[in-house]
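WARN retry 2 of 3 for item q-0093 after timeout on previous attempt; input resubmitted unchanged.
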Amino acid sequence: MENVSRHQCFIYEGAPSQQSPALASIIQKRLNDNYRCLYLNSPDMLANMRFCLQSRKVNVAEEIAKTRLLLTSATAVSADGRFDADLMISRLEDAVAQALRDGFKGLFATGDMSWELGPQKENFSRLLDYEWKLERVFHRQPALCGICQYHQDTLSPELVRAGILSHQAIFINETLSRVNDHYTESVPQAEQKVSRSAEELDEAVRKLFMPQYETDSIKSG
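OK item q-0093 returned
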């Protein structure tokens, strides 16, 4: 189950700061397991994550100084200001390789797609293509694990659907994840044919916020 749960999708609603404690718990676990941890989000959310980690007795300044913890707002954009999927993939693979060279067990990365995609966002096919490329990175890089955050309140329904389609596991909280029955194997963009209907995917998202969804889950972290 470890291989399946290394690339997780976290779909949430409400204030992003409410999700920071759960993510801070995962980051703390990964730090303790000797992973370099990368957290990508807005400057305000970086400050919030610092607070949450410090509340868990993590010495944030020391972890940053030792490059065990990377908090960044740097996004991968092209000359026209659009999200550059290939640049992001390249940076991530370089970061995994560097973490291993520096003696870490691997790299744990988590970022909020609302921030990563920038104000222009992306359409369904472009985001799905990026996430499928990212999924292939996880297969090539066994030292990589991470959580892609999807804020339902700021992303369009079609982008949230892309998140459901492109991840093998759904992050529930710091102790639970769930195998994603709606995961669709990646195919070349020219051949993309999504068999799941929008209604079916929207229902899957709605169920994420039902208390009983936490049953029959797998351990996270």
